Amino acid sequence: MKKIFLLLMLFVGVTTFAQERGERRSDMSSEEMAKLRADRLGMQLDLNAEQIAKLQAYYAKEIEDQRENASERRKETKEAREKLSEERAEMMEDRKEKMAEQDKKLKEILTPEQFIKYQALQEKRMKGRKDGMRRNK
């Protein structure tokens, strides 16, 4: 029991730390992130002030480009989702129209009792599909 509790506490601590770290980075400006990256690399590679300044300028531009690209991708993704949603709605509407046409034709062919039985079979089939879809999720 103690081991389970210890593992749970460790997991919660690591998760919290990871979330806090991610929040700090997103709150930083491009220049702050560039300075941090340039300073870190400067210490690791023993760079002079001029090299660090050049790195900082380069990183600032790269980070800004990355943020712009990410913003564009989010916008494109949102537009694609909206388009997909619209297409799905159109497909559903087309399917409903075809089903209505099919029911109209079947009414002409089948007797009223047969048509009622057919509708019951269709409802059962659709219910089975929905239940199957729920199990797969």
Which short descriptors sum up this protein?
single chain, 137 residues, mainly alpha, 4 helices, 93% helix, 0% strand, elongated, DUF4890 domain-containing protein, signal
Question: Could you walk me through the main structural features you see in this protein, from its secondary elements to its overall organization?
Answer:
Keywords: Signal. Residues 65-102 are annotated as: Disordered. This is DUF4890 domain-containing protein. Residues 1-18 form the signal peptide. By secondary structure, the chain is mainly alpha-helical. Helix content is 93%, strand content 0%. It has helices spanning 2-27, 30-45, 49-109, 112-136. The longest helix has 61 residues, at 49-109.
